[in-house]
Amino acid sequence: MSSNDDLRDLVRRIYPARVEGDLESLMSFLDDDCLFRVVGNQHLAPLTDPVVGAAALRVTMQYLIDNWDMRGIDFVSIHVDGDVALIHRMGRMRFGATEYDTEIMDKMTFENGKLKECVEFIDTLQAAALLDVVKLPTRN
């Protein structure tokens, strides 16, 4: 188990790699059998399908880098308990030409200094609207 400060520092290095689109750096933080998933039901698949392993994660992370711009997202808080970090982030995000305000919670589990599991909680209604799975009503 790493110290709380070590995990906090590791978390603070992972997100900039994602934001800057540095896929190689991002992959260096992940365990070979890392699991990544966005919490949501099957109607948002493949976004909510669990992704496991380096090859599949590389494809998924490249898709996220290419399509979901997170440069406007900042840390609100990072809480560490043992090998688990809970990360609260918020700000402006962009998908395609659409910018919107959002909040994200991540639960990251580490093993031997590598990310073993990342479970991401997002605004699934917003994601569904952006992916044309549902239509949001307009305000009058």
From TrEMBL:
InterPro entries: NTF2-like_dom_sf, SnoaL-like. Gene3D superfamilies: 3.10.450.50. Residues 11-117 form the SnoaL-like domain. It holds the Pfam family SnoaL_2. This is Conserved protein. It comes from Rhizobium favelukesii. The lineage of its organism: Bacteria, Pseudomonadati, Pseudomonadota, Alphaproteobacteria, Hyphomicrobiales.
